[in-house]
């Protein structure tokens, strides 16, 4: 099957060349209710239609005319789909894809009194802890309160250790106001706190000048990918990403017009990473692109595995042999539930391996959105970049300065993450109690979800060692696959769509993350609180049983 993007000009719709293919998938982008939608249709094309056409025959001899979705006034706009950056049209981000949009519509339908077999939507599609009822950590919120409203420093309601930290941050701000721009890489005091945190974690030196504060991990990841040269000897840069992967990576690679080199994680061995597969992936890409980077997500999203130290060593050796920058996405480092698993930072392992690996280029990412803080909306993150030559660091700096600075709220959140209350300080006990409660509840939810889903007919589930997701494999019955095909949907999307419509549970089909051909998965978060998770699993079980009975 050949994929064809429909381009619209002012009045006519044009199809790309369809010569030589008898099936086409048509995808078009349009805006509805301010939400970008993409419609897909799979058509059989008769032999006669090997030219540009706007009307053609589809299965069962029905003639379909594709409708140009532009209203007349839109056709006069200077920016059209066929003259903007095509990478924007190409990129996709499944976590907020069509099912997420449909979940929003269903919520509105429920509000307006439309009857459904459920009374609320369960949003298990995105790793947003507080949206699913997690309570914020008091210490962090107090620090935000005091830095944003310094008059509260006089209030007896705030503990002295938080006041001291807030004063320190305010002293570092221009005009003692959190509303001022900071240095482009963030407040020096917070960067120093991050460096100390990394030093304590790895028992290794960390130079605070290598630490850059960002508005969530996302902008840092995008900036580092954008650092790569667009064209070397006529070849695009290649970025190695795991499959399945967090779709920020595939979306960014598409947005920047780079080449994704997917390496499969091995589901049968708990989503481990086989060095032979890394070699297979790089060999298969041949001369198509110039491999420059390997991305590793540890603990894994969506797969929930924690890499062993041995596995990390193998990846480092592979990166060395193939001259790759390592981007270590370590945002879930505090989220480990399996007592036998342990988080090893790439930095620490590289250091311990000694020469020549200890001088390899590495960027490691961290976030305030994950862990036990779950402050997704505040947008706090950082990255540490090491062993990069000074000239490249200077160029990176220049690019960072052009973005002014990351949000100061995010910088304060990172300060709270890396400089928590210490033993004997007034906030310590409450902080530890809240932190442990969140982490032990996440562990309980991970185990509950794993145990429940493992009992479903046709499911294969790996234990959730870390992060916030489960990614089960489902054997979808042939009859269901046929029904999916009739609706022009991949089987996993069909399953997830049926689940949403029948139960209000919103998950993401595995195809949004990548999966081995002819397999079906989905990703669900483990984030609903225990009572809600029990309701969710109950609804899910009933749905699955009915689905299997119907299609078996
Ligand atoms: C693996 C991974 N990296 C990065 C991010 C981005 O996080 P942030 O909210 O800090 O931008 C996420 C968000 O879900 C993620 O799962």
Automatic annotation (TrEMBL):
Residue ranges annotated for the Aminotransferase class I/classII large domain, each copy included: 162-526
> Which pathway or pathways does this protein act in?
Amino-acid degradation; L-alanine degradation via transaminase pathway; pyruvate from L-alanine: step 1/1
Q: What class of enzyme is it?
A: transferase
This chain belongs to which protein, by name? alanine transaminase
Keyword field contains Transferase:
yes
* Keywords linked to the UniProt accession: Aminotransferase, Pyridoxal phosphate, Transferase
**Matches recorded under Gene3D superfamilies:** 1.10.287.1970, Aspartate Aminotransferase, domain 1, Type I PLP-dependent aspartate aminotransferase-like (Major domain)
Transcription found in the keyword field: no
Molecular function terms from GO: L-alanine:2-oxoglutarate aminotransferase activity; pyridoxal phosphate binding
Report the SUPFAM superfamilies cross-referenced here.
PLP-dependent transferases (SSF53383)
Q: Record's CDD domains? A: AAT_like
Assembly description: Homodimer.
Give the UniProt family note. Answer: Belongs to the class-I pyridoxal-phosphate-dependent aminotransferase family. Alanine aminotransferase subfamily.
According to its UniProt entry, the protein's GO biological process terms are: L-alanine catabolic process
Species this protein is from: Glossina brevipalpis
What catalytic activity does the UniProt entry give for this protein? L-alanine + 2-oxoglutarate = pyruvate + L-glutamate
Span-the-membrane segments of this chain are none
A Pfam family this chain is assigned to = Aminotran_1_2
* UniProt EC number: 2.6.1.2
Cofactor (UniProt):
pyridoxal 5'-phosphate
Please indicate which superkingdom the organism of origin belongs to: Eukaryota
